[in-house]
Design a protein that fits this description.
The chain has 120 residues and is mainly β. The chain is built from no helices and 10 strands. The protein starts with 14 loop residues before the first strand and ends in an 8-residue tail after the last strand.
């Protein structure tokens, strides 16, 4: 019950693989394609792979929460982030989830729009 990838020589592939313009992650032992949140320890980042195994970028709504992933590296962002095309600054907690309402961050109180997450 796993999806794996074999190269043109018929060899099972492991780890990160760029295939047809998309990054995928295959287990280093079993070769099984990974999905969901994954930590890439040697690159010090957490990324997200959709159900097709493709790394995701930009804003993503996952399990009812908004997340932001770097447009180049796919790294999940945390802390204050500017969403330039929406003219707002938002805050992502340590789990990468956008925050709403009143939040105490580093000893200071901030207010974020309850619908858009924009800092007020």
């Amino acid at each position: 019950h796993k999806t794996v990838y074999y190269n043109n020589q018929g060899q099972m592939q492991y780890g990160q693989q760029k295939l047809n313009g998309h990054w995928y992650l295959f287990d280093n032992v079993t070769g099984a394609m990974k999905t969901g949140f994954q930590s890439i320890a040697n690159q010090h980042k957490t990324v997200y792979y959709n159900n097709q195994g493709q790394m995701q970028y930009g804003q993503q709504k996952l399990n009812g929460h908004w997340y932001l992933f770097d447009n180049v590296t796919g790294a999940m962002k945390t802390g204050f982030q500017s969403i330039a095309n929406q003219h707002k600054t938002v805050y992502y907690n340590s789990q990468g989830q956008m925050q709403y309402g009143t939040e105490r961050i580093n000893g200071r109180v901030y207010h974020f729009n309850r619908v858009t997450g924009a800092r007020q």
